[in-house]
């Protein structure tokens, strides 16, 4: 009996990697089919070679790109998956158990390769990505960036190290965190571009549809920070930079209505010889119906069709969704848009609401009477005087567009019942 049990155990241990390899191939095909459901990308497995303990997949990815003239061209990439079958794994992140470990590599476009003088000397793992897929379908990803210098025809690109980790679950939970120390570009021994330390944190949940579908919505939080971004010209007037930039967004859903807010801050901004400090931007949205937003996203993707009849049907479909969006009394606000100048702060805000009682889906013109907006802005007079804009300010004051209050310029705008008012006075048409 012991020999029989031992034989069964050995047989299972030997056979399991092959059986798991079959399951892994099925999951990889399913993943790329789901991703290709989004019109923005198409991924195909050009060739799959399955072995007993290891498999390899050749991947072809294409993306439509629209140029300035509206012409659509296709950009293609080639990639490769080198897969180790479970249950015992050690390729991705040390020894462990799971369905498979994958090492992902991508081939640069030929046009890009031709611009790199030292392409043959670059390590293959300059940017490496490995994944571990667990038996329950959860996938852990690790992406590493190694420090390297890329010699281009007209410049050199100095890339600093970075590390990002992430997890994706079948339920649509996505988390990512990591840091990249940045890069710089040098031309003729002069630094022309510099990106500082970058950090990213994502904790989101995709709802309503498959996470790769254009109709899906992600709720949760995203945090991004950048220590510095600078484009360096030969003088301060030709340069621009931003320091200590942080962007944070958060969204949640209650009773099928989404509330979201995005905040952006920057300690220091410089361009055209001017310096600004303490930039702050806060935008919020309330009572946005998630089912309608999902349908609108899907319709907007389908609107890219070249068939005029199909486009008309889609436009009609979008118009039909607008009344449903307005039922929840949506609100959009720029709660704050401000920055400090050497002459004083520039401040503004905006709030937009829609009265569903005044909107008729059969009469698009009624939207003009349903939308209500209020905005305020103020800035120091000295800021514009220093820019040599006194004549422009005088013209705007004469027209009543702005008013002067002591040393500040004030603007108040309101739109209600189809009538726009500036500083309390009706805005003339035309």
UniProtKB/TrEMBL annotation:
Pfam families registered for this protein in UniProt: DUF945 (PF06097)
Organism superkingdom: Bacteria
InterPro entries: DUF945
Protein name: DUF945 domain-containing protein
Native organism: Thalassotalea mangrovi
């Amino acid at each position: 009996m012991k020999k029989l049990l031992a034989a069964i155990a050995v047989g299972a241990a030997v056979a399991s990697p092959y059986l798991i390899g079959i399951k892994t191939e099925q999951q990889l095909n399913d993943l790329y089919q789901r991703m290709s459901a989004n019109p923005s990308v198409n991924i195909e497995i050009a060739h799959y070679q399955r072995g007993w303990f290891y498999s390899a997949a050749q991947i072809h990815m294409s993306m439509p790109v629209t140029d300035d003239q509206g012409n659509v061209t296709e950009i293609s990439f080639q990639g490769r998956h080198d897969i180790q079958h479970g249950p015992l794994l050690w390729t991705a992140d040390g020894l462990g158990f799971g369905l498979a470990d994958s090492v992902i590599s991508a081939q640069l476009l030929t046009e890009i390769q031709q611009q790199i003088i030292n392409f043959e000397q670059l390590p293959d793992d300059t940017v490496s990505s490995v994944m571990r897929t667990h038996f329950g379908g959860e996938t852990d990803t690790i992406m590493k960036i190694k420090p390297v210098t890329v010699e281009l025809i007209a410049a050199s690109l100095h890339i600093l190290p970075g590390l990002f980790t992430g997890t994706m679950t079948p339920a649509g939970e996505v988390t990512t965190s990591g840091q990249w120390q940045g890069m710089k570009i040098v031309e003729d021994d002069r630094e022309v571009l510099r990106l500082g330390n970058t950090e990213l944190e994502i904790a989101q949940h995709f709802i309503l549809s498959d996470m790769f579908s254009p109709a899906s919505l992600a709720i949760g939080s995203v945090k991004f920070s950048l220590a510095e971004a600078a484009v360096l010209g030969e003088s301060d007037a030709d340069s621009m930079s931003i320091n200590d930039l942080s962007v944070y967004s958060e969204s949640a859903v209650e009773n099928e209505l989404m509330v979201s807010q995005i905040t952006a801050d920057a300690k220091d901004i410089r361009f055209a010889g001017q310096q600004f400090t303490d930039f702050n931007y806060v935008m919020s949205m309330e009572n946005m119906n998630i089912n309608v937003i999902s349908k609108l996203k899907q319709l907007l993707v389908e609107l890219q069709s070249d068939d005029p009849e199909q486009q008309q049907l889609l436009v009609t479909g979008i118009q039909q969704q607008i009344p449903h969006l307005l039922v929840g009394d949506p609100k959009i606000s720029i709660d704050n848009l401000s920055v400090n100048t050497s002459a004083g702060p520039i401040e503004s805000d905006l709030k937009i609401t829609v009265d569903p009682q005044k909107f008729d889906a059969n009469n698009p013109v009624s939207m003009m009477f349903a939308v209500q907006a209020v905005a305020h802005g103020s800035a120091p007079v000295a800021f514009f005087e220093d820019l040599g804009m006194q004549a422009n300010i005088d013209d705007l004051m004469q027209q009543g567009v702005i008013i002067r209050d002591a040393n500040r310029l004030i603007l108040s705008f309101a739109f209600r019942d189809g009538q726009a008012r500036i500083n309390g006075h009706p805005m003339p048409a035309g």
